[in-house]
Design brief:
Layout: E1 28-31, H1 35-41, E2 47-49, E3 55-57, E4 62-65, H2 67-86, H3 88-92, H4 97-121, H5 127-130, H6 133-146, E5 153-155, E6 161-168, E7 177-181, E8 186-191, E9 194-200, H7 205-208, H8 211-217, E10 221-222, H9 224-239, E11 246-251, E12 256-261, H10 271-281, E13 293-294, E14 299-300, E15 305-306, E16 309-313, E17 319-323
Parallel strand pairs: 5-12, 6-10
Antiparallel strand pairs: 1-4, 2-3, 6-9, 7-8, 8-9, 11-12, 13-14, 15-16, 16-17
This protein binds zinc ion.
Zinc ion is lined by residues 19, 21-22, 24, 65-66, 68-69.
């Protein structure tokens, strides 16, 4: 009987000699960005840039994995997501939150694993300062959550994430695929007309703090720029939730039990701080989008709202009308 969960965070072990998920024999490798996705959007030779400016081609971004994890749980997950993606938004929206969170978390953690591995590889003395203790703590929670790929999971308390799927316009000037994430385990992924915004470890506060957006936009087709603004807002909310929380995961032979309690916090909004998130999420628009923050007026560029009214945009990002609420 397995009494303990494999945790590479115990001794910060992010080497290629153990399966990233279970710690077993790494007789296989897992593409962080699945092959079906790379095929669909011809990503193989494109480069992914890490925050320390190193880069790697999509096809080379692989992490150590055992055959068992790879052929069973991870393949099952990828097949499920691939099938849903092929059915577009109408099909994808019916996926359960757990499956979507497992998938975005797997991609996120895969990138993180590679990043930590690179840092250790280079014997970078800055390792300790580049990933601080609080972050490590929250990343550890992410790895624990990923154990749900190996065994059924049951939540006895609060759910540790926020996730929302939107239908997104196809703007011919933009790529059909976009992936953005932050150090806060938040981000957005756009695949065709499917837009996913997520946050892990926020205990639902990202959704709670943005309930007006969810109410106003959930039944609209939004523009990619709006998806990225929502992701900026989710990420900002997540940054306000202390990394530390009271969660515990218990694994026995047949299942996992996730016991968690969300912290009791009051979300506050600071325009200046939020603006940094907005800039981060809009970086792929380059100079084509001008972001303005007026400190004296406390006003900030928004593609979602104008005078509190929800903006309905067309596929070119032009204002069609305001939504009556
Ligand atoms: Zn494994």
């Amino acid at each position: 009987m397995e009494s303990t969960i494999y945790s590479p965070f115990e001794d910060l072990h992010f080497d290629y000699d153990k399966c990233f998920l279970c710690g077993g024999e790494p007789d296989s490798q897992e593409h962080v960005y699945p092959k079906w996705l790379q095929r669909k959007y011809d990503l193989w030779n494109k480069r992914i840039y890490f925050r320390n400016r190193t880069s790697i081609q999509y096809k080379d971004l692989k992490i150590p994995c055992c055959k068992n994890c790879n052929n069973k749980s991870l393949s099952q997950l990828e097949n499920k997501i691939n099938e849903a993606v092929n059915g577009g938004y109408e099909k994808f929206k019916n996926l359960d939150e757990l499956t979507i969170m497992q998938w975005v978390s797997k991609v996120y953690y895969g990138k993180l694993f590679k990043k930590l591995n690179l840092l250790i590889d280079r014997k970078n003395k800055d390792f300790g300062t580049m990933v601080n203790k609080e972050q490590i703590f929250s990343y550890r929670g992410l790895h624990e959550f990923l154990q749900s790929l190996r065994k059924p999971i049951e939540f006895t308390g609060d759910i540790p994430w926020s996730v929302q799927v939107f239908q997104v316009h196809n703007d011919s000037r933009l790529e059909d695929y976009e992936y953005i994430d932050t150090i806060f385990i938040t981000g957005c992924i756009r695949i065709g007309d499917i837009g996913i915004v997520y946050s892990f470890g926020d205990w639902g506060y990202a959704k709670l703090g943005n309930s007006k957006i969810l109410n106003d936009f959930i039944d609209l087709i939004i523009h990619p720029i709006q998806l990225q603004e929502i992701a900026a807002r989710f990420s900002y909310a997540r940054s306000k939730v202390n990394f530390e929380n009271l969660s515990l995961i218990v694994m026995d032979e047949s299942r996992l039990t996730y016991i968690g309690t969300k912290p009791n916090i009051q979300l506050t909004f600071n325009h200046k701080e939020y603006f940094m998130f907005l800039q981060f999420f809009f970086v792929n628009f380059g100079n084509s989008v001008k972001l303005i923050y007026d400190e004296t007026q406390e006003s900030i560029t928004s593609f979602l709202f104008e005078n509190n009214q929800a903006r309905v945009l067309d596929e070119n990002g032009q204002l069609k009308c305001y939504k009556r609420t």
